[in-house]
Design a protein that fits this description.
Elements lengths: L10 H9 L4 H21 L4 H20 L9 H31 L2 H24 L1 H12 L4 H5 L7 H20 L2 H11 L3
Helix pairs in contact: 1-2, 2-3, 2-4, 3-4, 5-8, 5-9, 6-8
């Protein structure tokens, strides 16, 4: 049992207090002894007073957990152990903030992303218009073969052609039709080139 009126607790008493059911006296002692110093450490490492208070609370909870799990081996003093946890907690917080900052910067610089998305949608619209001019069967054959990388055998299962050769002939016919449409629509060729060919 810890005497509430005492100003000092030994490391053994601190460990015993944190292992018990009521940690209030021990935590109050840690707060009185180390809180201000921990605030200064966190401020020195780039944080604020509020950051220091948050990290102190987190560190005490982590220390209680580690002591109860018998992970504190007594190689260092309780103070050194607590301050080590504080530094680790604060470095983790800094890494989290850095990741959050990068995500926010990417979000805030979303204009290029929006522009790329609009161009992508435009190119899709151009392709859809082109394939719609070919007809549904040609569209499905060419999209399946060239964009979805399906084999002739896999495509044959989707159609009612007699065999693969008949399907191959139809694919070639669709390609000729596609070339004819493109040859009469120079603007469409230019649009597709600008959307899909990058310098």
């Amino acid at each position: 049992m810890i005497d509430k009126d005492r100003n000092q607790l030994s490391d053994i008493e601190i460990i015993s207090g944190l292992e018990g059911n009521d940690v209030t006296v021990t935590v109050e002692f840690l707060y009185a002894q180390y809180f201000k110093e921990i605030i200064e450490v966190v401020k020195y490492m780039g944080g604020s007073e509020e950051d220091g208070a948050d990290v102190f609370q987190e560190a005490v909870l982590v220390m209680i957990e580690k002591i109860r799990e018998k992970r504190f081996r007594g190689d260092s003093s309780v103070k050194t152990y607590l301050f080590g946890i504080v530094k680790n907690q604060w470095l983790m917080e800094l890494r989290t903030r850095e990741r959050r900052k990068k995500r926010e910067e990417q979000y805030m610089s979303g204009e290029p992303y929006i522009q790329n998305t609009l161009e992508y949608k435009k190119s899709n619209a151009d392709l859809n218009n082109l394939f719609n001019q070919l007809g549904e069967v040609c569209k499905r054959i060419l999209v399946g073969f060239y964009f979805e990388n399906k084999s002739m055998k896999a495509l044959l299962d989707q159609f009612e052609f007699k065999n693969e050769q008949v399907l191959r002939n139809r694919k070639n016919s669709c390609m000729r039709k596609l070339k004819e449409i493109l040859s009469t629509n120079k603007n469409l060729i230019q649009s597709l080139k600008s959307d899909f060919i990058y310098e």
